Structure prediction request, 164 residues.
Amino acid sequence: MKTPIMKDVLKLLEKDSRLSAEKLAAMTGHPLAEVEKAVRRAETDRIILTYKTVINWEKVGREQVSALIEVKVVPQRAVGFDTVAQRIYRYPEARSVYLLSGTYDLLVQVTGRSIHDVATFVTEKLATLEFVQGTVTHFLLKRYKEDGEILDGQDELERLPVSP
Prediction:
């Protein structure tokens, strides 16, 4: 059940999961006890799934390769794509799995230490599943923005100075 207080709290937590209950109460104008109750309820009801930090790993020198893999599958009788997606998302390499419309059925986001790690996942685990008909792998070359955060630190395009 989403109440007005819960919606207010969720909007703020989505932007900054580090906000304390006290800060949330001050920002929303709702009593602290009600804010704490709303957060607990959202966690219990799995509305809030996790608290996440977006990290620019390139700035700390950690090598990481990400890929988006389009997957064409045969849907399973009586359950459609759900059991197929479930089988794929249980692999630790699969960071995200989405059902798509269009030419391909699923989109799988994979992260590994190297291109070889990602290729091994695709060729030995994903493509060999009996219901997978085909895959197309797109390696991410550069991340500019992730989860709403600009990674290079520039919020706005710089304007050229105008002189009279």
